[in-house]
Amino acid sequence: MKKKSKRYKEILKNKIKDKKISPNEALDLVKKNSSTKFDESIDISLKINLKQSKGGDLSLRTIVNLPNGSGKKYKVAVLCEAEKIDEAKKTGADVVGSDDLIEKIAAGKLNFTKLVCTPAMMGKIGKHGKVLGPKGLMPNPKLGTVATDLSKAVKDIKTGLVEIRNDKDGNLASTIGRKSFSTEKLIENYNYFIESIKKEKPDTIKGELIKNIFLTSTMGISYKVGAK
Known about the structure:
- It is a single chain.
- By secondary structure, the chain is an alpha/beta fold.
- The protein folds into two domains: 20-71 and 161-225, 2-Layer Sandwich (Ribulose 1,5 Bisphosphate Carboxylase/Oxygenase); 76-159, CATH 3.40.50.790.
- It contains eight helices and nine strands.
- The protein has helices spanning 6-12, 23-33, 85-89, 99-106, 122-125, 129-132, 150-159, 183-198; strands at residues 41-48, 61-65, 76-79, 95-97, 114-117, 161-165, 171-178, 210-217, 223-225.
- α2 (23-33) crosses α8.
- The chain is globular, with a radius of gyration of 20 Å.
């Protein structure tokens, strides 16, 4: 059995069992528990209601543009027509290319963590879905990664756009900031995130969309969150 570290034993003293606490209280505790040397991410996990009164289970996939950013850094690539290369280089993207970038993707050279594509290039990149799809890199208009306004698309990703997707059991997780963020900024991100998810509730689901909410940090313990 793996021995628990001294740091983890200290964190366990702050554990709260079988009780929902307010977002403010939870975030204060999560930040207090973030005692590692690196800037831990502050993460939210939801259990959502998948059961619709008609049709199959709900599949929720969307984006949330956090008001204070996520603190997560992405290496963004832009795939565009050859004549738009110069324009794309001014967007702040880390990698820019046209057919040459497609060749690198086909060879499995994915030197980026997000891919933005112009609509005109979707026909060419579509056949490489088997390479990009499993890594979550396939451009998608609903996720803001297929765009004509390349500057906006790159800026959104760099400053706070997070992708949301539930699994088959109704679990949904995301980052809402870093331990270096103030509690006020984290609360603002938290509230915006929750309200954004609630807006995705279809009329075919009865009752509340969100069943449970948990907050934690990269190396911390989680807290069950109740009403504000």
